[in-house]
Every structure is written in C-alpha cells, then in structure tokens.
Write a structure and sequence with these properties.
This protein is mostly helical and 252 residues long. The chain is built from twelve helices and three strands. The longest helix is centred in the middle third of the chain and has 20 residues.
Length: 252
C-alpha cells in the first residue's frame, strides 16, 4: 500500500527503485517528453538552458520531495542576485513547473506545483519597439563593409528577410532567387518558420549587398556568434541607440 501512495513514492521512489526521484531525473524525463511532443529545436535549446540553471542551483541529485516553496523562493532570490532579469527567471520557473507537473502525473512528486511555485510572478517584461531608421541601416552597413564585409553581409541579409538569427545563417546562395523575387528561409522554430520571403524594391539593395559581401562554406553569411554583443556596440560606436538582432527583424 505504501508503494502505491504518491507521497511515499515521491520520497522513496517507485517500488522497483530504491532511491527517490531526483531533479536531474525529472528534468531528463521532461526534456524527453517535450522532444517527443515535436517541440522545435529552438524551443528545446531554450528549455535545456533553463534546465541547466535549475540543476545548478537546486542540485541535480536533490530529491524532488525537497523541492519545496521555500527552496523555489530561494532559487528565484539567488537568480536575482546573479542579475538575471525577472523575465528570464519567469521562464525558468515555467520550465520547473513543467518538470514538476510531469513528475506529479507519473507519481514521482506529491506536491501541487501551483502551491510550490510563486504565484503572480511579475516579469517586468516590456516589448521592445526599437527599429533602425533608413539612415541608421545605411550608416551601419557602410561602416561594417569597410572593415568586416562578411558582417555587413549578415546585417544586410537580416534586414532583407526579417529572419531570426539562426535562419539568417542557414540561408544558402541558391535560396536567393533574384529572378523569382523570393528568398527561401529555412526556419525551425514554429510550423510556419520554413517560408518564402519576397524580395521587394525596398529590400533588393540589401539582398544585393549580401550577395556581394557574403559566402561562407555553402551558406550566404558566416555565423556570428557574438552578434548580441557586437551589433549593439557597432551602433553605439556610430552614435546611435543600441539594437539587437531581433530589432533588425522589427526594422523590416
């Protein structure tokens, strides 16, 4: 009877397992469950990053039964001390809710996740509205082309397509069909991410610039691992307000 009791199983593990379910085991089960649900690679990558923070602070070998409201509050407090944004912490808590909910459904966690996680967590998130003006885009491309043409190609292609960072870096030269006036964007984040973007009179100069300055191992542009740091710095160096790769999407 004790082995069938959820509270007993959470503390001592199923009858065939001598140990209690741990944070690491529950997290691994959650990631597999999400993967099997055909979640996009981008979302899975995001889940994995959030899960690493959870395991780092809560402890991968910590039994699930010890994941209490007090422990979760301490987690959030530590992440705030680490200068993580409230929005980021909110996403991490959402992943934790998924981990605990799956564990509870499988009889490995007795508590109600809604009672363990903070209610009404204020993320403080404000949607960004930054977009480059035509003058800013021209100045940025001109400055980059003089010293780092391959970076100018990256920015030009992003401005031409409004694509996400990973999508920009997957575009091949043959995906750009100037005669047809279209660019194939190989997206994976959502069902509609794989799409064809038209080449407009407004964006044609950007496409031509990307074709002139780009080419890297079969892809049109070279991967830019530090774009989140370098792009804002480049704009600030020109006397403009900083902008992120997502702001290039808004610009189009």
């Amino acid at each position: 009877a004790a082995a069938r009791d959820p509270a007993h199983r959470a503390a001592h593990g199923p009858a065939q397992e001598p140990h209690a379910a741990t944070v690491a085991e529950a997290t691994a089960a959650f990631l597999v469950e999400r993967r099997d649900a055909a979640i996009s690679r981008g979302t899975m990558h995001c889940y994995s990053i959030k899960a690493r923070h959870l395991a780092r602070i809560l402890g991968g070998q910590t039994p699930l039964v010890e994941v209490t409201a007090e422990r979760v509050d301490a987690y959030a407090s530590q992440r705030l001390d680490e200068q993580a944004s409230r929005n980021t912490i909110g996403k991490e808590l959402t992943v934790l809710r998924g981990i605990l909910s799956l564990a509870r459904r499988r009889g490995l966690y007795a508590a109600d996740p809604r009672a363990v996680l903070p209610s009404g967590w204020e993320t403080g998130y404000q949607p960004r509205r930054r977009a480059l003006s035509a003058a800013e885009a021209e100045a940025l491309l001109s400055a980059l082309a003089k010293v780092l043409p391959h970076r100018a190609a990256w920015v030009a292609l992003a401005l031409a397509t409004g694509a996400r960072r990973s999508e920009v870096e997957r575009i091949r030269r043959e995906d750009v069909r100037m005669v047809d006036g279209a660019i194939l964007v190989r997206g994976t984040k959502t069902e509609r991410s794989d799409r064809v973007v038209p080449i407009l009179s407004l964006t044609r100069p950007f496409v031509q610039a990307a074709l002139a300055w780009g080419e890297h191992a079969g892809r049109l542009v070279k991967p830019w691992s530090n774009v989140g740091r370098d792009l804002p710095a480049a704009l600030e160096g020109l006397g403009y307000v900083r902008a992120t790769p997502n702001d290039l999407r808004r610009t189009l």
